[in-house]
Specification:
four-stranded antiparallel sheet; rod-shaped; Tetrahydropterin Synthase, Chain A; 9 strands
């Protein structure tokens, strides 16, 4: 019995040793082996790590294997919990929804694995600092704005943030230049984060720029007032246009009636002239007078004194 117990213990120990001597690397990952905390390198004294491709590999029991993903990582900084706040040049505090996509650089895995204790948290914190710095120092070339009554009304009723640059202050300026802002932030992140920690940013997108509540309410009020003014103007223009068309039609009808009356008078004058030439005008007038008097109920005769 004792010998059987020894054999069982020895077999269990061998299984444990075999388990400690092997490790598996999944697809899309690479393996890094450390001996007492020191990573295996291709050249001693350099940062060129010895990487193990996907598959099963052997190691010594005291060595520790780490699997590092080389797939694209996504950090979603949007919504109420993930959005970051930043102060613009005019003091407006904006809420920024952004999405980061990056991949570790295979040749610089030493910086990514051993210089970052928590890569996602570290990248998120660094990006937040860079984003706030970029928003605070972002310069916008303001275009010339046409004079509009609705814009003037919005500036009168809006807070100071609305009265600088475009309607909406830095908020509107940043939204109008979001493409250039995205490009600058991506380049800045690649230099300040990617180069230092072995990352390649495939995309840095500002999904949305949201104003503070009071600015949002002021913008909505200004937009609502502008829409009401445009609606009132369109209605007044339609009413005026309808009246102009009605007046033009009335003039045309009056002109047609006048032309018809003129033709009727001309025809009647021609007939009367023909009657006068045949010496029957007095008879025609007497006959018409008799017809008119025969249809009347009352006759009023004027006698000169």
């Amino acid at each position: 019995m004792f010998s059987i117990g020894i054999l069982i213990g020895l077999g269990a120990y061998l299984l444990y040793v075999m388990r400690r001597c092997g490790f598996r690397v999944a697809e899309g990952h690479v393996g890094i082996v450390t001996s007492f905390g020191a990573a295996q390198r291709n050249n001693e004294g350099s940062k060129d790590l010895r990487l193990h491709p996907p598959g099963i590999h052997l190691k010594w029991p005291w060595q520790i294997a780490r699997s590092v993903p080389l797939m694209e990582e996504i950090i979603d900084l949007s919504g109420e919990a993930g959005a970051r706040s930043a102060m613009a040049r005019d003091g407006t505090v904006l809420r920024l929804d952004s999405v980061l996509r990056y991949v570790p650089v295979r040749d610089k895995l030493y910086d990514f694995v051993f210089d970052l204790q928590s890569p996602r948290e570290h990248v998120t914190s660094l990006f937040t600092c860079l984003l706030r710095n970029e928003i605070a120092n972002f310069n916008v070339e303001l275009p010339a704005q046409p004079a509009r009554n609705t814009a003037a009304l919005a500036r009168i009723t809006a807070p100071p943030q609305l009265q600088q640059g475009l309607p909406g202050g830095s908020y509107a300026n940043l939204r109008s230049e979001r493409g250039r802002l995205n490009h600058e932030i991506r380049a800045y992140c690649q230099v300040e984060i990617g180069t230092l920690y072995g990352l390649q940013f495939s995309s840095v997108d500002l999904v949305d720029i949201r104003p503070p509540e009071e600015l949002d309410e002021a913008l909505n009020a200004a937009h609502h007032a502008e829409m009401e003014a445009e609606e009132a103007y369109a209605y007044a223009e339609a009413v005026a246009q309808r009246r102009v068309i009605a007046a033009m039609q009335g003039v045309e009808i009056a002109r047609t009636k006048a032309a018809a009356a003129q033709r009727e008078i001309a025809v009647l004058a021609q007939h009367l002239e023909e009657l006068d030439q045949t010496d029957t005008l007095e008879m025609y007038v007497a006959r018409r007078n008799a017809e008119v008097l025969s249809q009347a109920r009352h006759h009023y005769v004027r006698r000169d004194r």
